């Protein structure tokens, strides 16, 4: 057991997550007032203090009972100058972050020395690391200064610095800082035909709730229509729509047409959309008729996600389709006229090695999608795989990183560039998820959801809207209930939550 003692700060949980990078198989928790460690427990204590009038010292110690195992003290002088165009509010926010970075930096340095490990993501434990690059560039920092900060302050490995810089370079011309006046829309269809063993997302199996589909679409239409009317009344414009899940195309043809018709009447016919995505996902949920339906309703981008192009892997993880289904559905989408198709793959699926990833990438490259999203397996408590897959099996250490290198080499071969990335807990080898694109085919919604510089209104059970307030660089969340029956029974309340947010936010 390892206890984290950070009595002066409110972000002790971030230090817990950082410590897990060094001790992935240990139980690690923040100390509380009632904590009574045993003499066998390790205690990591981190504190800060003023060092004169200009600097702060950050001290981290590691003890086992009374025995001091290690100590690290760093002295740093925070930047006291406002950045270019930086308000006093944002200046104070940045100062607090610099203090946090100093404390986490001393933890990282001590644990690196103690364990011999140097996690590639340094002190970063958050989901959206590229935001840091944009904030530094927005302050007027040069690209050389940004690189220096990422390596020296955040302790990032040069490979992750390169990845972040390349991603930010693609994103910067595309980030829309529209505040509340120009927004994106997300529509959630939380149904799947079956549950993949690795999946932890809350979704209902289609066969169990098929009798509620009509009621769900009724409520979804009420919610979308009410807010679309409010958008028009308040002069708010919508420019991207993303229908995700679940697997939206698991809907029967008539229900899918109804969903698309609702989206047409509420958004596409009222606002000048520049992008319209449907996350079809599983190839067994698509056929030529559904593809033509999507095309006829103006969908500009779809996803057809193999996850792996090795049949034994698909069978092992519960994907009820074949690799031939993937290729056939992709070709049908091309014949229907889709010129922007995404394909997802997952690094580290059970039984796979870099050789399997090589085969997957070769097969996908032969199809020629415009977007490829490379996910790293993250085995969470809610997934069926949790019981049979040991995430930190020593025999698998470094395997996902090798598979990631295979993907990066293929992306260079295909002239694709990273355009968004994010991280999650429990990822193999503490890696990341990266979306790659042919230049000019970036999914702007994906950039918006990751970089959080504009409002996204989300509809459906379990959907969470994020309203961006640029003057404070702050997000306001407006969440719908997750349970399907609760959503149907409380749809009026869901609509009023959104109306209230519009009334107070505009």
Q: Topology of this protein?
A:
Layout: E1 2-5, H1 12-22, E2 28-30, E3 42-51, E4 55-64, E5 67-76, H2 88-115, H3 130-138, H4 143-152, H5 158-171, E6 179-189, E7 191-192, E8 204-205, H6 206-209, H7 213-234, E9 237-245, H8 253-268, E10 275-281, H9 288-296, E11 301-304, H10 311-316, H11 323-336, E12 341-347, H12 354-367, E13 371-376, H13 399-413, E14 417-422, E15 433-437, H14 444-451, E16 454-459, E17 464-469, E18 474-479, H15 484-489, H16 491-505
Helix pairs in contact: 1-2, 3-5, 4-5, 7-8, 7-16, 8-9, 9-11, 12-13
Report the strand count.
Answer: 18
Overall pLDDT confidence:
91
Estimate the helix proportion, in percent. Answer: 25-40%
Catalogue the unreliable spans: none
Q: Main beta sheet, described?
A: 9 strands, mixed
What is the radius of gyration?
24 Å
Q: Provide the β-strand percentage band.
A: 15-25%
The count of domains is 4
Strand order of the largest sheet: 14-15-13-12-11-10-9-6-16
Number of separate helices = 16
What characteristic shape results from the CA principal axes?
A: globular
Class by SSE composition: alpha/beta
- Termini separation comes to 49 Å
Provide structural commentary.
This protein is an alpha/beta fold and 506 residues long. The protein folds into four domains: 1-106; 120-172; 181-300 and 441-505; 306-321 and 332-339 and 341-438, Transcription Regulator spoIIAA (2-Layer Sandwich). 40% of the residues lie in helices and 23% in strands. It contains 16 helices and 18 strands. Strands 14-15-13-12-11-10-9-6-16 form a nine-stranded mixed beta sheet, with helices on both faces. Helix 8 links the parallel strand 9 and strand 10. Helix 1 (12-22) runs parallel beside helix 2 (88-115). It is globular. The model has no long low-confidence stretch (mean pLDDT 91).
